[in-house]
Specification:
Strand content: 15-25%
Number of helices: 11
Structural class: alpha/beta
CATH superfamily of the largest domain: Isopropylmalate Dehydrogenase
CATH topology of the largest domain: Isopropylmalate Dehydrogenase
Protein name: NAD-dependent isocitrate dehydrogenase
Strand order of the largest sheet: 2-1-3-12-11-4-5-10-8-9
Number of strands: 12
Cofactor: Mg(2+)
GO molecular function: 3-isopropylmalate dehydrogenase activity; isocitrate dehydrogenase (NAD+) activity; magnesium ion binding; NAD binding
Helix content: 40-55%
Family: Belongs to the isocitrate and isopropylmalate dehydrogenases family.
CATH class of the largest domain: Alpha Beta
Pfam families: Iso_dh
Number of domains: 2
């Protein structure tokens, strides 16, 4: 039996989570779903966005499924990543049929360092002698340990998933010490994987932003630091039809959290309009993590069939179906 922490969160998080659990319950797999609270609504009720009880539940689980958070997203997701040491954020960029994808056959992975960089939250105001705020500073931390760990993860992922190339993304021409260190470590790790037939290359982050639009098929696995990975992965989502289709995984040494990358979308919450695919595909990534690869493949194929047919899809995909109607259509296509 797998213990799965379930955090529906805010807004459409509840709806896409219901749609996703509908899929998981249809599989011949023994799940114990442990529900927990976090997010804006939780903070309104308890004054805390991420209660200690929720952290305890996640720590006891084999994996965690998260729906969406609103204004408290940073307080919830960033803290969970730090508490669980979920150092690797995985954002697949994959084309699906029947969507607004700009390219038909994209399939690459962005591996983003999750624990440091600009997102450590070390900020301060600059004040004059009268105490007036005249500016602000933010500290960026890049360490050898974290850089080596994320680069090792990216190359190992490439090896295990038959990928042929890993691209390191940085801005070492300007951020000479922090990104200079990241680039140096990237090539140290790359050297160990040459005998595995895995190529390596590196680009500046601004050039990469252009290459994602002009030649995205040249990428296989991208590895980069926290802020750059956050920005590039959303650009990647734009290539393949938007955030409603993009899952993600946050992986640590012995824990993992899976979540769609869209927000809580309060403007459509409670109306059954939300596209559940990103959350369902996040569950597919969870199944792969749990080594339930047959089930993961079956659900992924079912999503592919429903998107291809375009008969039972939500409004953002050109259809008129509700969130749960689309979930049911996917469930009916599962062959497992």
């Amino acid at each position: 039996m797998y213990k799965i922490a379930v955090i529906p969160g805010d807004g459409i998080g509840k709806e896409v989570m219901e749609a996703t659990l509908n899929i998981l319950k249809a599989l011949n797999i023994d799940f114990d779903f442990m529900f927990a609270d976090a997010g804006d609504e939780c903070k309104e009720k308890t004054s805390v966005a991420l209660p200690d009880k929720t952290i305890e539940i996640v720590k006891k689980a084999d994996a965690c499924l998260f729906g969406a958070a609103g204004e408290t997203a940073a307080d919830v997701i960033v803290r969970l990543r730090q508490e669980m040491d979920l150092f690797a954020n995985l954002r697949p960029v994959k084309s699906y049929p029947g969507t607004n994808s700009l390219f038909d056959d994209l399939d690459f992975m962005i591996v983003r360092e999750n624990t440091e960089g600009m997102y450590i939250g070390d900020e301060d105001y600059i004040k004059d002698e009268l105490g007036n705020v005249t500016g602000a500073t933010a500290k960026r931390v890049i360490t050898r340990d974290a850089s080596e760990r994320i680069c090792e993860y990216a190359f190992k992922y490439a090896k295990e998933n038959n990928r042929k190339k890993v691209t390191g993304i940085h801005k070492a021409n300007v951020l000479k010490k922090t990104d200079g260190l990241f680039k140096k470590i990237f090539y140290e790790v790359a050297e160990k994987y040459k005998t595995e037939g895995i190529e390596s290359e590196d680009f500046y982050v601004d050039a990469t932003a252009m290459y994602l639009l002009t030649r995205p098929k040249s990428f296989d696995v991208i590895v980069t630091t926290n802020l750059f990975g956050d920005i590039l992965s959303d650009e990647g989502a734009g290539l393949v039809g938007g955030l409603g289709l993009i899952p993600s995984a946050n992986i640590g040494e012995d824990r993992a959290l899976f979540e769609p990358v869209h927000g809580s979308a309060p403007d459509i919450a409670g109306k059954g309009l939300a596209n559940p695919v990103a959350c369902i595909l996040s569950a597919v990534m969870m199944l792969e993590y749990l080594d339930e690869k047959e089930a993961a493949n079956a659900v992924d194929k079912a999503v592919l069939k429903v998107l291809s047919e375009k008969k039972t899809v939500t409004g953002d995909l050109g259809g008129k179906s509700t969130t749960m109607e689309m979930s049911e259509a996917i469930k009916e296509k599962i062959e497992f």
